[in-house]
Amino acid sequence: MNKNRLWTISSVLVMVLVLMLGVLLGIQPQLAATSAANDQRISVQASNAGQAAVLVQLKEDFAGIDKLKADLAPLSDSVPNGTDIPAFVNQLDALASASQVTLTGITVADAVPYAPVVAPVEAATETTQDATPEPTTSAAPAPTAGVPPVTNPQITVDNFASLAVSITVSGSYANALNFVSGLQTGSRLFLVSGISTSKEAESVDVTATITGLVYVLVPPASAAPATTAAQ
Fold it and tell me: Where is this region: Disordered (predicted)?
């Protein structure tokens, strides 16, 4: 083998080695970087598609926000976020005027945390069997369990409270009943628990005292609503 052939073979081997080193040191890292960038691009596209879907849903929800606000307004008036006693007094003044009675007194007690109502439980009875039956007498039927109350797990002692209210009005008996009816159907939820009337001396008018409860939503992480009283 002459020197020229050896030189040619050596040159070819050097070129192959240079080419392999170029692939390993130059082209391969670029290919890996390109693949990583492509994977990242696909991930970003998928994320953008998800965010676009969320944005479309938000736009659809926002389109109906006016209706939601309209639906929320009477609910907020019925059970406000806080005592909102001044607005309730204004409601009573307007109702008294419309019912043609005179509002003479309003008392609001301390707020009491919500206590879930428990249905009465049917009394348990025990029976025994003897060899010789003893004469028995008829007894009153055992009480049956009441209708289960309607409850909501979202209403808890931490976010719901009631305030005992006493309202006194004077006027004709019929107008006093109209006032009570309006109180039960007014914008503020009012549960009537009692009504008492007394005849005024030398007058056809009566004095009616209505007791009941109003309800409030307690803001999160806040103290119990403050007591508000007016006489």
Answer: 124-146
